[in-house]
Design a protein that fits this description.
Blueprint: H1 3-13, H2 16-55, E1 58-59, E2 67-75, E3 78-86, E4 107-110, H3 112-120, E5 131-135, E6 147-152, E7 164-165, E8 168-169, H4 183-208, H5 213-225, H6 230-263, H7 282-309, H8 311-315, H9 325-347, H10 356-375, H11 377-391, H12 395-406, H13 408-439, E9 446-451, H14 457-464, E10 469-477, E11 484-487, H15 490-494, E12 511-514, E13 529-535, E14 541-548, E15 553-555, E16 567-571, E17 581-582, E18 586-591, H16 595-608, E19 615-616, H17 621-659, H18 661-669, H19 674-709, H20 722-740
Parallel strand pairs: 3-6, 4-5, 11-16, 12-15
Antiparallel strand pairs: 1-8, 2-3, 2-7, 4-6, 9-18, 9-19, 10-11, 10-18, 12-16, 13-14, 13-17
């Protein structure tokens, strides 16, 4: 019979055990391919986001007569982008992508997400003066949840010094503040996702295509002994493996398409996208539909080759060869060497500048360490099992260790998924903790800066009395040395600093200001004269004023970042002529720091002055958005890694129990009790898992620290997540031990000893 036809017959018409194995292989490959497709689709989603952002960017060149002004405000972790646009009196003007008609003065075109948000928060309407006449189409939005609006205004309503002429729309690349993730974050994110998803995925797919490896090898050896040539035996094995992998790959791509359509618009990963953005590319389809069968063939080739070349040894279950220690050392030693070297530099206080070399070495070291960690488990645990078996007097432990000593490779399939999961979590949790620390604001107040030239006197007065504003002052910087003055009373100063931190303040005269936490006081400031040009309400020059820094110093403490950091002089409001203010002055407001209070205050201030640039000091809108995306992607990677690791453990543990049913039946006939079998089964799983998790925790902390040392930040060592990781490792051991207990009671039929 043709070996291809024989392989298909064994798949379709073989015993139920073969069909069940084929089904498990197919479903396992489908889950793995779906995770692979999801991981590989992330770059395409980000590229689609950046492409639409670049397509709506305003071009320079010959003006069409239209003027535009952009304002951004934070709404939680998302930015609200308002494009104020003044159409020309006559002639045609290019339309932004996704907009059918340019809004006229008093009209607004908004995104669907902003339309829904306006229904929930009517107070936001003040920032969008006008009547909503249409919505923006998908071509003009980076995603379905983007808050974007085009607001029609007259030329007189746009600040002449900030409004830009519109020459057209579309540039070759997205601006840094429009990109989904900045270039500096893409590399570490890609490296972390590889550790979280691709390493466990490789192990999981290898496990799935080697289900019932022992039984398959014996069946192939039987075919070889019946006269089938070695080449045809290999072909029979390849047909079964490739069929399961190919069907699983197709099902996995379909599963990815269903999940993509379900979660694309939800923003579950911190980034919402259109379902078409997440469709697999040609390269992704090639990796899934061709790469998975290729991996399946390579993973099953070794056992098939052994059955084809040594059929008698396979049928008689000869003792397998010892694991190759040199292969594990070839990977783990260079990897540990790289990450340990950077950790030593961190201990010595050597600052390592981020560079192309570190961007390559640190990810390479982490990946080599993870792969070497898995390959090192068989030789290490075999050596340890031999030492334990030689010293212990307990029967369950002796049975477990002797069996593990002879077949250490079987434990690799059972525990490698969980070991890699703990390693990746140890590497990633420090990144998440650091991101959480960056995003957490602990200041006692929130400052808002509004340029004087963008608001009228009436608008400034309304802002100081707005609900949620607890303090106000006038602040400006000198252009020569960036030293600032604060025009405020002592009571107003206290609204911007830590409670009770002001010392030595007296109203009515200029005073020197100093925050001891920033830097020692510069004695050269005493007696120095600072000159400031004055402006009237129309922005015209109205003379100048000079202030001399006195010897009297007022000390205070502010939470960074703050507009008061470089302020050296406190000036009473009465020291300025009525109706005049320093050139470059900004209205400084203070309010509560809670996120809900900050958002409500921003809505009220935007309603008072829609076109003014209101800067919430210390809140970088785009950083918050990108931070949310990065945390969402890393969280998704951890979920995928968890699914893959647990699935690999369950599949391999069940398969190992099925392969070991003859051994279990033999021990049962010899009088070994079920309790002893359970204890041996549990010990046989826990030994390699405990060794692997211990190594994963140590190697993961080293890899994480090397990333922090070379990341350019101030944090080199992160110990906040270590207790959680230790508890998680203990939890994994407990769950694995409990999951292995029922396996000892399955398939105890003594007739198994008579079956071929």
């Amino acid at each position: 019979m043709n070996p291809l036809a024989l392989g298909l017959r064994l798949v379709l018409r073989g015993p139920r055990s073969n069909q069940a194995r084929f089904l498990l292989m197919t479903l396992g490959c489908a889950l793995g391919v779906a995770c692979l497709a999801a991981a590989l689709s992330i770059p395409a989603i980000l590229a689609a986001h950046d492409g639409r952002a670049a397509g709506r960017a305003v071009q320079g060149g010959p003006s069409s007569g239209a003027l535009t002004l952009e304002r951004k405000d934070p709404v939680g972790s998302r930015p609200l982008t308002r494009i104020f646009i003044s159409p020309p009196d006559n002639g045609t003007v290019p339309l932004p992508p996704g907009v059918k008609r340019l809004p006229q003065p008093g009209e607004v075109v908004i995104s669907p997400a902003l339309r829904d948000l306006l229904a929930e928060r009517p107070g936001l309407k003040g920032a969008l003066p006008g009547r909503v006449v249409n919505t923006i189409g998908p071509a003009g939005l980076t995603g379905p949840q983007e808050l974007y609006a085009y607001v029609g205004r007259t030329r007189a309503q746009l600040p002449a010094e900030e409004a830009k002429p519109v020459g057209g729309y579309g540039i070759p690349w997205a601006a840094p503040d429009e990109a989904a993730i900045d270039d500096g974050t893409v590399a570490p994110l890609r490296f972390t996702l590889c550790c979280l998803v691709l390493l466990p995925l490789f192990v999981y797919l290898s496990v799935c295509v080697r289900l019932s490896a022992e039984a398959r090898s014996r069946r192939l050896a039987s075919l070889r002994l019946l006269g089938l040539s070695a080449r045809d035996t290999m072909r029979v094995s390849a047909v079964e493996t490739l069929c399961a992998a190919a069907v699983g790959a197709v099902l996995g791509v379909g599963l990815h398409l269903l999940v993509n359509a379900s979660v694309a618009r939800t923003g579950w990963v911190g980034l919402a996208w259109y379902p078409a953005d997440g469709l697999p590319s040609v390269w992704t389809l090639a990796a899934c539909l061709l790469g998975c069968p290729a991996l399946a063939y390579l993973a099953g080739r070794r056992h098939a080759k052994e059955a084809a070349l040594r059929p008698l040894a396979v049928r008689r279950q000869a003792q397998p060869g010892k694991p190759r220690r040199w292969l594990a050392a070839l990977l783990v030693l260079p990897g540990l060497g790289i990450v340990t070297a950077y950790c030593v530099l961190g201990v010595l206080g050597v600052y390592v500048e981020p560079s192309a070399l570190t961007s390559f070495l640190v990810p390479a070291g982490a990946l080599l360490t993870g792969a070497g960690l898995v390959l090192a488990l068989p030789p290490v645990t075999a050596w340890l099992a031999a030492r334990i078996a030689a010293t212990t007097q307990r029967l369950p432990l002796t049975l477990a260790m002797r069996h593990h000593e002879t077949t250490p490779g079987a434990a690799l399939r059972v525990v490698s998924g969980l070991v890699l999961l703990v390693y990746a979590a140890s590497l990633t949790q420090g990144v998440l903790v650091e991101l959480d620390q960056v995003s957490r604001r602990t200041a006692p107040n929130q400052e808002y800066a509004v340029p004087f030239r963008q608001v009228t006197a009436e608008q400034r007065a309304a802002m100081t009395k707005a609900e949620g504003v607890s303090g106000h002052a006038v602040h400006t910087y000198r252009t020569t040395d960036q030293s600032g003055i604060l025009v405020a009373t002592c009571g107003q100063l206290e609204k911007f600093v830590r409670p009770g931190s002001v010392r030595g303040c007296v109203d009515g005269r200029p005073l020197a200001l100093h925050d001891p936490a920033t830097a020692p006081y510069d004695l050269r400031e005493r007696g120095r004269t600072h000159a400031f040009a004055l402006r009237d309400e129309d922005g015209r020059t109205a003379g100048s004023v000079r202030f001399t820094v006195p010897e009297k110093i007022v000390t205070f403490s502010v939470a960074q970042p703050s507009a008061l950091t470089s302020t050296v002089l406190l000036v009473p409001p009465k020291a300025l002529p009525p109706g005049l203010h320093p050139a470059g002055a900004q209205l400084l407001l203070s309010g509560a720091p809670e996120p809900e209070a900050v958002q409500a205050t921003l809505d009220r201030l935007a309603g008072i002055a829609p076109t003014a640039q209101i800067d919430p000091v210390g809140i970088v809108i785009e950083s918050l958005r990108q931070l949310s995306i990065v945390k969402g992607l890393l969280g998704t990677g951890m979920v995928l890694g968890l699914v893959i690791g647990v699935a690999a453990f369950l599949v391999s543990a069940t398969d190992r129990a099925m392969d070991g049913r003859r051994r279990t039946a033999t021990l049962t006939l010899l009088g070994i009790r079920t309790r002893t079998l359970r204890a041996a089964q549990c010990a046989q799983v826990l030994l390699p898992l405990a060794v692997g998790i211990g190594g994963a925790l140590v190697a993961g902390r080293l890899a994480e620290s090397s990333y922090l040392v070379t990341g350019g930040g101030a944090v080199f060592w992160d110990g906040e997540g270590l207790p959680l990781l230790l508890l998680s490792g203990l939890g994994v051991l407990a769950v694995a031990g409990l999951a292995s207990l029922p396996m000892a009671r399955r398939h105890l039929d003594p007739e198994l000893l008579r079956r071929d």
